[in-house]
Design brief:
Number of strands: 9
Largest sheet: 7 strands, mixed, barrel
CATH class of one domain: Mainly Beta
Distance between the termini: 62 Å
CATH architecture of one domain: Beta Barrel
Order of helices and strands: EEEEHEEHEEEHHHH
Structural class: alpha+beta
Radius of gyration: 30 Å
Length: 288
């Protein structure tokens, strides 16, 4: 059964428009989730609204919204006041501009969605917009109202459809200078940089997300299956902690040696081979 669209509307570029459907590109529903239960009865628990100061239960009719300006000081905002300033949804993604994809900072990316045409009549217009972006290697920036909030949205060609990603506003992005400016400038030896580069090259690979494993999720599923079957619980296998790095240069050299499948060479001179050993070394002796 096909998933239900999260949003339906129109994609509009100037005088060209087509009906579209928007679907979430990610989902967390497959993860194991828990409910709060009464351990004595096994029944689900319900949360109640309680006044933080008096401890008295509050009826849902008295539940309101408040913006905190100080300790126990709030500016109350009513639902009808929020309704008056709500951005009216036209159920349309209006394309405002086209920009190079590499100009968009990764920090601005928020939630991805898939967009497909929602009517056979609009498939040609949809394909024209998609292929124009693909040909120019550009992405579209537009705006749309989702969940009562106006969002900036980025559209890019992906296969036969479009990938739409909502973007954060600038005020939501924290400045990197607040975290990086106090870090010291360190002059690294050329040898150390070359060793690190060698390790990176030895571990070069393609991005293959199907190899990712959520070990905690896997352990949860095993635990639940065992409990359901009435089997005894087993403690998860512990992962040994990595050894503490004492000397960075030595650690880099050991990493390279391990990558080659051999141990790092020692500085001590090896002992002289025995008479039996002179007959043939392991490197030259043929396998019988």
């Amino acid at each position: 059964m096909a998933p239900r669209p999260y949003w339906k509307g129109y994609l509009k570029l100037s005088l060209v428009s087509c009906p579209i459907a928007l679907y979430p590109a990610t989902s967390g529903s497959e993860r194991v989730s828990f409910r709060q239960v009464n351990k004595e009865t096994g029944n689900r628990l319900k949360q109640k609204l309680v006044d933080a100061e008096t401890g008295q239960e509050v009826d849902s009719a008295n539940k309101g919204r408040g913006y905190e300006i100080g300790k126990n000081q709030f500016i109350l905002v009513e639902d009808d006041e929020l309704e008056k300033i709500r951005v009216e949804s036209s159920h349309t993604i209006d394309i405002d501009s086209f920009v190079p994809r590499d100009q968009i900072d990764q920090r601005y990316l928020d939630t991805p969605y898939y967009i497909i045409p929602n009517d056979t009549v609009g498939q040609e217009a949809f394909a024209v917009i998609r292929e124009a972006m693909r040909d120019k290697k550009m992405v579209a920036l537009g705006h749309v109202v989702l969940a009562k909030r106006e969002r900036v949205i980025m559209l890019e060609a992906r296969g036969k459809g479009l990938l739409a990603t909502t973007l954060h506003y600038p005020y939501e992005i924290r400045k990197e200078s607040e975290y990086f400016d106090d870090l010291p400038d360190i002059k690294l030896p050329d040898e150390m940089t070359k060793l690190a580069s060698h390790i990176l090259e030895s571990k070069r690979a393609d991005f293959e997300p199907e190899k990712f494993e959520d070990r905690y999720e896997t352990a949860l599923v095993k635990l639940l299956r065992a409990k359901q079957a009435g089997l005894p619980e087993r403690a998860p296998e512990s992962t040994p902690e990595p050894a503490r790095v004492i000397n960075l240069m030595d650690a880099l050299k050991r990493s390279i040696a391990d990558a080659k499948g051999s141990k790092p060479t020692e500085r001590r001179r090896p002992p002289a081979p025995s008479k039996a050993g002179r007959r043939g070394s392991p490197k030259t002796r043929k396998a019988g």
